[in-house]
Amino acid sequence: MISRRSFLRVSALAGAVAASGASCAAGASGAAARVSGAAGPRPADWSALGRGLAGTLIRPGDASYDNARRVFNSAFDSVRPAGVAYCSTAADVSECLAFARKFKVPVTSRSGGHSYAGWSTGTGLVVDVSPMSKVSYSGGHATVGAGARLVDVYAKLAAHGVSIPAGSCPTVGVAGLTLGGGIGVVSRQYGLTCDVLESLKVVTADGKTLTCSPTSHPDLYWASRGGGGGNFGVATSFTFRTHQTRSVTLFFLHWPWSKAAAVLKAWQSWAPSAPDALWSNCHLNHDPSLDVMVGGLYLGGRTACENLLQKLVDRIGSGPSSRYVATSAYDHAMMVEAGCASSSVAQCHRPGTLPGQNPGGKLVRDSFSAKSHFAYTPLTSAGIKALLAQVAAPGRHSVLLDALGGAVARVRPDATAFPHRKALFGVQYYAHFGGAAGWARTAHAAMRPYLGDHAYVNYADPELKNWRQQYYGANAARLAQVKAAYDPGRLFRLPQGV
Ligand SMILES: Cc1cc2nc3c(=O)[nH]c(=O)nc-3n(C[C@H](O)[C@H](O)[C@H](O)COP(=O)(O)OP(=O)(O)OC[C@H]3O[C@@H](n4cnc5c(N)ncnc54)[C@H](O)[C@@H]3O)c2cc1C
């Protein structure tokens, strides 16, 4: 089985949950099952909803209820939805929204269930789009159901020799990832997932299914590229521009902790300005022992990759203590980055028979805590020292730095709702086990003087105070206008809702 920690050892684009069970209860997840004073649905109303769906409604008491209600992070296991509707069609979604409007039941959208803050579950009606997971391809365009998991997107597109830039975690849903941006191992070459989004279908609060593109509902299309899931409607499908795949070179280089400052100083100037074809991360690990690793992927051959890596080694002034550099087929590289190098696609799922799961799945859920920053300027020597001190503090935790730049930076900050185009790299403070939230909070606070206040909406952090500015920057005002136009009654509510 692939644990979250072993996954992180090979892939540092992964995330974490920035909330304890207590903050879970404070979120949308903790909203009352119906708005006070409204007549709530009777059991017969729920039964009627279930009968009206092409998909399946699962209610407390049903055999699969516990399995259906649990999201990726087990920190949110105490949340008990009144119903989980596995929607097979946009009409099912529309039916669920009509039910939510009629009975004033809080409604929550769910795709892969990886929201850091647990914002894809709640005590009302969970609208799960997992049954809509078809992936089809034609002439440079992929149409992907909003419930598809990344591992299936990669595998199904690989059969056509194409792919899209997307995240590493195999069970992340395409909907949450795309709507918040979508940072991945080929983003420096091909952009964020939202950058290759050509159109999407969204069921809005009034139950209508809208096709959004540059020419149809352009504002909603703009907001759906980085504005964050759960804000504007329920997406049911995405059409992406694809790229041709090719063989790639994977690398993982380790240095002893005594070289960490030199590695970080060299990496932060090398990685964001490397050729677009080279993506890398720097992983400062204290889990259980101290280690520094630079890993990544090059869209090219091994010799060219080795030449680029040598430039990093030259800047550091000493070679790695261990190194792995090897060519790989593109689809296998995605499985390696997913932590599924020795698994089949079926195994690289959560086990089970519900939509989104696989009977042969081997992946386990996780419980963890994290916070994040974007670095717009390189860390100073004092910043590097402060960061390494946080990593070296007692406990089991990691800091993951993911290179940006390249194609991500060539898009204007206001061209999509994702504003962090000029950031050099992302930073995540990630920890397991008891006390983890405390470490992440301390590390995040310690680095604020050096990194400022920029955060990624896909790494939702319920503790952020000025989250609008941190997630959206100057795009926040336009997002609020789109929200007012498409969900004036605020059917879709999040604790950090636009
Ligand atoms: C292990 C792990 C690895 C990750 N790796 C990466 C990575 O490599 N790159 C990266 O950029 N991010 C990564 N992330 C962050 C990830 O992109 C976000 O957590 C994303 O929101 C998850 O999407 P989801 O569909 O799985 O989650 P969900 O929890 O289902 O949804 C996330 C949010 O979107 C909303 N939503 C879900 N479905 C819909 C829909 N159909 N329509 C409208 N709103 C919807 C939900 O209500 C929720 O607010 C990772 C997260 C984890 C936990």
Automatic annotation (TrEMBL):
State the UniProt keywords alphabetically: FAD, Flavoprotein, Oxidoreductase, Signal
Q: Where are the transmembrane segments?
A: none
Renumbered to this chain, the signal peptide range is: 1-25
Q: Which InterPro entries match?
A: BBE (IPR012951), FAD-bd_PCMH (IPR016166), FAD-bd_PCMH-like_sf (IPR036318), FAD-bd_PCMH_sub1 (IPR016167), FAD-bd_PCMH_sub2 (IPR016169), FAD-linked_Oxidoreductase (IPR050416), Oxid_FAD_bind_N (IPR006094), Oxy_OxRdtase_FAD_BS (IPR006093)
Q: Which cofactor does it need?
A: FAD
Q: Name one GO molecular function term.
A: FAD binding
Which superkingdom does the taxonomy of this entry point to?
Bacteria
Residues annotated as domain FAD-binding PCMH-type: 76-245
Its family remark reads: Belongs to the oxygen-dependent FAD-linked oxidoreductase family.
Q: Which PANTHER family match?
A: BINDING OXIDOREDUCTASE, PUTATIVE (AFU_ORTHOLOGUE AFUA_1G17690)-RELATED, FAD-BINDING PCMH-TYPE DOMAIN-CONTAINING PROTEIN
Q: What is the name of this protein?
A: FAD-binding oxidoreductase
Instruction: Give the classification, highest ranks.
Output: Bacteria, Bacillati, Actinomycetota, Actinomycetes, Streptosporangiales
